[in-house]
Design goal:
single chain; alpha/beta; Alpha-Beta Plaits; TIM Barrel; 2 domains; 8-stranded mixed barrel; 14 helices; about 20% strand
Length: about 350
């Protein structure tokens, strides 16, 4: 097992790294912002990388080989040859890939139609045993493979209970270097699972990172194939309204930070009410995400949200019992003051 040298831009990052090594009982040597480790297993190093702050991980360079960190000459040679950790992380994850995907959980969180008082859709969420999402910046290829795997498994498992409901699937913009090819392959997978494209909702996260023209073309392509498009976290940051007007999605999901304790904050009420109103004027459906309390639910219902997603109904589960969830949905909605309409 070759020695590994970890070089950080700041000593505070090296100290953060060392504290994680100590947590695992791994021996180390440190000189300033440089840390040397003689023996560390792949799964241990993956854990350390996944727990490091994003800033520390971005500043990291590594060298594999024998180094005397007490020797300036030896250390300088290693520093010159040091590489970014993306190749190392992909190699580590690849070595552990079987374990990762065997242990990966796919869970489904219901999205409720508040007028019909029943589940209208499920969002598929991936729960890998290690935090691959935290490694996206440096372990791109394996993280992309993981995301594709999660969508494939989600469609495969959702067939058992989906019926005629919608299935929300997340796409991260960092994996959309060739969007038309990505979604062309994705649609092939949809047909392979015998799911109607009209039941699929592509949920774009952090879409601000994409070129506006490219996203507009992408949405046009998806809609032409019958797939619906949702924008996640609308209302966060300064660009939400711009993208809402420019991209014309079928659905928007209001940022859960705006929903949390909305009944206590006048400004949140104004913002959310405005978002719902302009969405409806544009023919866009609205999901109020992160609803946990009856008061939050009552507030967004008063504002005429179309859908609600949140722990107030249920937490994400691997095998949803639709009948039981619908019973819970009707019970919760009927208990909310001011709710009108017949029970279903």
């Amino acid at each position: 097992m070759a020695e590994k040298l970890f070089i950080f831009e700041e000593e505070s990052f090296a100290d953060e790294f060392v504290s994680l090594l100590e947590e695992l009982g791994i021996k180390w040597e440190k000189v300033g912002n440089v840390v040397k480790v003689n023996k560390i297993r792949d799964e241990e190093l993956l854990y350390v990388f996944s727990e490091l702050s994003e800033e520390a991980l971005k500043s990291l360079r590594f060298y594999e080989g024998n180094v005397n960190i007490s020797s300036c000459e030896s250390l300088l040679k290693a520093v010159v040859k040091a590489k970014t950790p993306d190749v190392l992380i992909d190699k580590l994850i690849y070595n552990e890939i079987g374990k990762i995907f065997i242990d990966t959980k796919i869970v489904f969180h219901p999205i409720v139609d508040v007028k019909k008082k029943e589940v209208a859709a499920f969002e598929a969420l991936c729960r890998p045993p290690i935090k691959i999402v935290d490694l996206i910046n440096v372990g791109k290829s394996t993280a992309e493979f993981s995301e594709n795997f999660c969508r494939y498994e989600a469609m495969k498992r959702a067939k058992e209970f989906l019926g005629n409901r919608l299935l929300f699937l997340n796409f991260h913009p960092r994996f959309l270097k060739d969007p038309l090819k990505t979604f062309g392959d994705f649609l092939t997978t949809v047909y392979m699972h015998e799911i109607d494209p009209s039941q699929i909702v592509v949920e774009l996260t952090e879409y601000e990172e994409l070129d506006i023209t490219a996203v507009r073309s992408l949405i046009s392509f998806l809609k032409s194939e019958g797939v619906k498009v949702a924008l996640d976290d609308v209302g966060s940051g300064y660009s939400g309204l711009f993208y809402l007007s420019e991209l014309g999605p079928d659905i928007i999901k209001i940022d859960m930070e705006l929903i949390r304790n909305i009944h206590k904050h006048s400004l949140k009420k104004i913002i959310v009410n405005y978002l719902i109103r302009i969405a409806h004027e544009s023919g866009i459906k609205v999901v109020s995400e992160g609803v946990e309390r009856p008061e939050e639910l009552e507030t967004v219902l008063y504002m005429e949200t179309d859908y609600v997603q949140g722990f107030i109904f249920t937490k994400p589960v691997e095998k949803p019992d639709v009948k039981r969830i619908n019973e819970r949905v009707r019970k919760v909605l009927n208990a909310v003051n001011g709710l009108k309409g017949p029970d279903r």
